[in-house]
Records
---
Amino acid sequence: MRYIDINSIENLDELQLRLKECRNWSCVKEVLSELSQKTCWYCEHYVPATGYAEVDHWRPKAQNMYPWLEFELKNYIYSCKCCNNKKLNKFPLKDETKRAKISTDDISKEEPLLLNPLNKSDIQSICYDMSGRLVPKKNEIRDKVRKTKEILQLDTTDRLAEKSKAFSVLCSDLDTYLQFKSNEEFANEMIKKINEKIKYEEGNPFVWSFCMYIESWFKENDTKLVGTNIREKIKFPEDFKEVYLNN
Ligand SMILES: [Zn+2]
């Protein structure tokens, strides 16, 4: 899962207006896909807008849920078919009595038990382990992470398959770096390989998940990394640095 700065969309108000007029998410699809280099905001799998891309309504649009948010851009999650199919109308709250029933109810009183890629503090509170499983960084967010994984079924064997394979390659590159850190040429080669994986490029999945893992790997291997310059040489994307490393 990655952070999406929805306010970074140029002419956001204009786009919102257009969405309410055309009443079809296809008119914003392209813009949303560009925000994540065509990866699902929940699971970071590659999903081109022309392929199986869908939009999940974070607060479900069902008639008995939040129908007034059907064309609300900030309620949209650019998503792969799999995440959208698992999520459906699920939207658990910590306290059901606080659920908004009509459009004039205050949704900010709700305490959703579902991570939101648009919520900076949610993303700052999560991390990944070496097999690519989502884990909470803070105790307060444990229930939310557990519930999100349950709803989206992020860590089931088949859902994890591609991700754990990609993570094992990354972990092996990091370990190889540690092992051969004194061989400058070889160490640089490893850093180059790692940087390729965390570069924003169409078709590059798991960039944020990888970055989150690398950051925790730094912490875990702190003493072993003394005297090496991997920290300076890893090229984290700017928005990742700003949101995740500065908190
Ligand atoms: Zn997904």
---
Amino acid sequence: MHVHAIQTGTVAIKQRQVRGSGQGFGRRLNTMLDRVWTNPLPIYVWVIEHPEGIIVVDTGETARATEPGYFPWWHPYYPLGVREWVRPEEEVGPQLRALGIPPEEVRWVVLTHLHTDHAGGLAHFPKAEILLSRTEYQQACGWQGQMRGYLPQHWPTWFDPTLISFTPASVGSFPQSYPVTRAQDVLLVPTAGHTAGHLSVVVLEDDHTLFLAGDTSYTQQLTLEEAVDGVAPDKQVSRQTLQRIHAFTQQMPTIYLPSHDPEARERLLHRHPVQVPETSTGHSAPFLISEGSNAPVFGHTYALVVSRLRFSRRALEKWRAST
Ligand SMILES: [Zn+2]
């Protein structure tokens, strides 16, 4: 499977959005009032060339977002919390064509969530099936969606996503998942936190997984620290997700790829996994996937349920020897 990173421009946000500070509404207020901006961060889209069809994960931002009047004037986040730079040729459509992939041939578009810098390029994919969490869609619709920081007014008129329901088929530390491909090597997992209906994409490669993380965190280090961002609606939910992702990365070699991590492209290119500390107990847990709802659970919350072992014994031993 070939996986590409496409960068659709850059975004700067407040430092306290990257690493939240304070409690409740104060945390979000601190984000907007923070005077420290990040450097311009990449806005990544991931493209998976799968035998069953091309899968695009997130659509990046549109150049229209840099035009006056694109963001609602009355919402404080846009003037106070975000700056974006996108040229028309940086949008996902032209960049896919440059790779030799006509956007109309994309079979699936997966949206990790509906924030503008992930859904801004939707107009390039009128023919694709668009997969999205039901919760995320419901949160983003209407004027309440606009209040929450979504831009439903800019969705294409044809936008009619497939709202997925997770099934109790566990993947690593995630008790639920949704298979995109028949081969069950591209799976969605619920990662609520940054938004209420956020999801991530797990891609199974030979002896490791790619974790296309959306905005679960802005860098790998922040996930390992389980540091909640400055805009997540529910801190507890967010922390639980970060713990779960952290556990996942300790159970199997995982290349962790958040949408705005400046180091993500390099990690993808070299398939550079999250390091597992010597003392971690995660070594003893090979990567298992369960199917069916009544599979037994061993021991504690993150114990894995078994019916299919994805790693060959040799790959697993090689991984153990190297950690
Ligand atoms: Zn976001």
---
Amino acid sequence: MKKSLVTHIAVMVVAVVLGSYLASYLTAQQSEISVNRDKLSKAPLGGFNKFASDVQWMLFINYAGGIDCVEKPEAEEIYNRLNTILSNDPDMEIAYNIGGMMISNSDPVKSAEIFMRGANNANLKSSWQLPFSAGFVLDRYVTDQDDPQRLKKAEEMFRLAASRAGDNAPYITSALLKTRAKRIAQKGKWSNIPVVNDEHALLCAMFDEWRKGGGSEDGNPQASDSMNIPDLKARLLKAAQDAKASDPTNKNILETINKVMKVVSEDQHLCGNCLTPYAAGDKFCSQCGTSVVVYAVCPKCAAVMKGKFCSHCGNK
Ligand SMILES: [Zn+2]
Ligand SMILES: [Zn+2]
């Protein structure tokens, strides 16, 4: 009798030890399989979270169709419903997209938060729309009073979107450069040169991207946080022209242009007035008519040199 009691207790102890061991092993296995488990709602749905979120989503659409406008109270309601839906299914991409969009005007801070949450979800990392929308709302609708870090966050989001979209979304690049320019303008200085206007700031932003890409002709997509901006060199030249045109005699702008062109366009000959490239033998700028320094002409007959010898007079 006594012996069997001891055996009973021994078996129970072993079972408890094994059970807790197995439980911790299974939990580890489970979180490997279901990465979002810790984000899931703790409501007792018996594993039917996905089903619940689908029903809640249908009710959400129904609610959204029934309201005439989205003001603060509606935005609050939408945000709460979204949180419930997303706690049952954190991977429901459409909920982030539509929900975030619906409250972007009336509550941009919460809208940006929804979009960023979606953008940072590891299971949705093929979506470039989520980080793009996050960047857009942060840049356009959120104010500095709401969040002093909004432009920094917006730039990060646009960068994330660009890295996911590849080469086929040039407007993401434009949005990124504009946001970066705003940050530079806000700082007021770039490379110790005071920034005087938006065109100037955009030129600085582009040159930063150029330097990040290693300064090669077509950027350097391998560099960690640089991206492949098509025609960056041509865009830099255009930005320099725009900056000069915005305030032709401003010494800060001229200093920046000098700095940029020395690195970017050493092989090109540019009109000193409007920065348009000109060809060998040109005496005047074809864009603004300013006389330019003639290059690559035969010193004897002034014909344009195409090779070693002048094709006109044979002079070497
Ligand atoms: Zn010119
Ligand atoms: Zn000649």
